[in-house]
Amino acid sequence: MSRGGVQSIAVDRLAQLNAGSAATTLTECLAIDFATLMGNILPEIGDDALTEMRQAASLGISRRMPLAARLIADRIGFSAQERLANHPSDTARGWACFMIGATERMDLCQRLAAIRAYADDPHFGVREWAWMAVRPHLAAELEKAIALLAADWPLNPSERIRRFASEAIRPRGVWCAHIAALRQHPELALTVIEPLRADPSSYVQDSVGNWLNDASKDQPDWVQALCDRWTSANSNPATARICRRALRSIRSDNRH
User: What gap in Å lies between CA 150 and CA 156, rounded to an integer?
Assistant: First the structure.
């Protein structure tokens, strides 16, 4: 976060965010002082934890989130996750996501069950932290993860839950490590992606299109063939939109 971005937020608004108010924009999310927020909502955490959090202030937010979760778990225990789960601060709920991601007391099925409420959170930031927090576990047990997700996530009434199913296992993803197996064999995830091919939600359509665009950078012929199959079998505008997004890198390459 640049200093100019922080300065663009009014002092009183920044104080509200650091006291536990919800952020309304990405700029506000990035401007929050984690140590101040942590001290305000978890005053018992101790000065040593707050000092460690302050020392990490220059790190990117994707590194500070799991650090905050670890400090909370180490100093207070996993029970703090329940307190954070219902806090107005989206950053606090994000810390809860990473506590779920970091704990050793859950298997993959339990972890997905625990993260589901955060995947369906009304705040855009919490929904991103939800998939980021558990993605390493999904990648480590990919076959099982795909089976668990395919069982009901792509069919859920909530567009947020359906989007999580796609976003959490993108072959390349954003702000996260790639999943090598899906870069080489994107067909492994078809049981998750195929049910979303005509999803009515643009939120889901964007994710599926991005998923396939990721795959196209390593397996362009497979993505082209899949989109050809989808569009020939279904003239749905949602499918057409997904495929346009999916093929954008291929089409860009063909123009050069």
Answer: 10
